Amino acid sequence: MSRNKTNPQGPPDDPPLPDPALCRATSMAGSTLAECRVPRPFACQYAVVFSYSYLCDHPHRAAIIARTQANQQNP
């Protein structure tokens, strides 16, 4: 796994991540890991490349998961 520190791609006007208004993640069953669900996860310092996706290593990822679930239930 490697942690991304910069945003070599994407327009310079992209909002910086992590941004509570933009961050979304889903829980991975049976673990404390979370899959990042933002459109450009490589821009986040807490995004960790894992196989075909990005994992969220944010210290408050449980709150991000809860917010994502709440947004899915109340769009």
How is this structure best described in words?
The chain is α+β, with helices and mostly antiparallel strands and 75 residues long. Helices cover 17% and strands 21% of the residues. It has one helix spanning 61-73; strands at 2-3, 25-27, 34-36, 47-50, 53-56. The strands form two sheets. A three-stranded antiparallel β-sheet has the order 1-4-5, with no helix packed on it. The chain has a two-stranded antiparallel sheet with strand order 2-3. It has one domain (17-73). A hairpin with a 2-residue loop joins strand 4 (47-50) and strand 5. It has one helix and five strands. The protein is globular. The longest helix has 13 residues, at 61-73. Mean pLDDT is 82; it is low at 1-7.
Task: Describe the largest sheet.
Answer: 3 strands, antiparallel
Tally the structural domains: 1
Radius of gyration: 12 Å
State the strand order across the main sheet. Answer: 1-4-5
Question: Averaging pLDDT over every residue, what do you get?
Answer: 82
Binned, the helix content reads 10-25%
> β content, as a range?
15-25%
In angstroms, what separates the terminal alpha carbons? 33 Å
Counting H and I runs of at least 4 residues, what is the number of helices? 1
Shape: globular
List the helices and strands in order. Answer: EEEEEH
Number of DSSP strand runs = 5
Return the structural class.
Answer: alpha+beta
Contiguous low-pLDDT stretches (5 residues minimum) are 1-7
